[in-house]
Amino acid sequence: YYLSITILCKYGLFCRSMEGFNHSRVSEFVLFGLTDSPELQIFFFVMFSIFYLMTMFGNCLILFTVLSTPHLHSPMYFLLSNLSLIDMCLSSFATPKMIMDFFTQRKTISFEGCISQIFFLHLFTGTEIVLLISMSFDRYIAICKPLHYSTIMSQRVCVGLVVTSWTVGFLHTISQLAFTLYLPFCGPNVIDSFFCDLPVVIQLACIDIYVLGIFMISTSGVIALISFLLLLTSYIIVLVAIKDHSSTGSSKAFSTCTAHFIVVLMFFGPCIFIYVWPFTNFLVDKVLSVFYTIFTPFLNPIIYTLRNQEMKIAVMKKLSNQYSNLGKTTPRYSVQ
């Protein structure tokens, strides 16, 4: 990596002469947020607060249901519960601060906090990409190779898939941070977004990073694009396999896969657009960022699990049991 920087500097493609350069680092960044309108800020505060609370409640409910229901201890629900965990993390790395910033006149974030947001963003998104591929592999094995499903999707394989997801996410975010931390930030310090991400942060570096910045950031976009194409191919193969085996079940499978694909599209679409074409300064980048950090974690519990009849029954049973237990523990007072 550092050899590539040296070569690019030698030919004047990456950095200017560093002689006499002031390496003083900014202590904080200023976030523009989503809007300056007081009316829209109140509206966004209410809307995003509701979305965030419902996201946390829905994903926690799914985790609790899967962990406490023995007949849901299967590979598919094991992967779904891990998806819920990642969605809670992805929804929490920047959303709470964004919500509180709606009532702040000057929205700032420390340099360390900004780097932390970049770290967790790429950790959780990288992990979710690999986990979504693992989930599509699970459905492929279950439908196309049902006789070998229990052998292939063993407990060890499932745990290995989850560990691999987190490992890939960690390695991905470390590679991005190794690039970012090497850069000097001496000002300006204004970020036209509601959280810190590579395309907007590295533009504030005090050296010319256009060529290498394009290469590093576009790598994330290419990875997302390839993963999206793999998922699309797997869904097509599964649909074709179901259609060949059963005409009555094809409509249900088509509906399920379509719903899954909508979530995949909402997650991968913004990532591909933002990272394949960085430094565009389009206002739409903010909107797309909202989709994969707020809306997708909110929709995943609904589309991936609550549309599943078995999961829906288990969730309703848990809720009814909790309500019944609450009623039994509530003290009753008699009127003398």
From TrEMBL:
GO molecular function annotations of the record: G protein-coupled receptor activity; olfactory receptor activity
SUPFAM superfamilies reported in the protein's UniProt record: Family A G protein-coupled receptor-like
Annotated keywords: Cell membrane, Disulfide bond, G-protein coupled receptor, Membrane, Olfaction, Receptor, Sensory transduction, Transducer, Transmembrane, Transmembrane helix
Transmembrane recorded as keyword: yes
TM regions (residue ranges): 42-64, 76-95, 115-137, 157-179, 209-242, 254-277, 289-306
Membrane topology value: Multi-pass membrane protein
Main location: membrane
Domain G-protein coupled receptors family 1 profile: 58-304
Subcellular location: Cell membrane; Membrane
InterPro entries, per database record: GPCR_Rhodpsn, GPCR_Rhodpsn_7TM, Olfact_rcpt, Olfactory_Receptors
GO CC term (a single one): plasma membrane
Source organism superkingdom: Eukaryota
Family: Belongs to the G-protein coupled receptor 1 family.
Function per UniProt: Putative odorant or sperm cell receptor.
The protein's name in its UniProt record: Olfactory receptor
Species name: Rhinolophus ferrumequinum (Greater horseshoe bat)
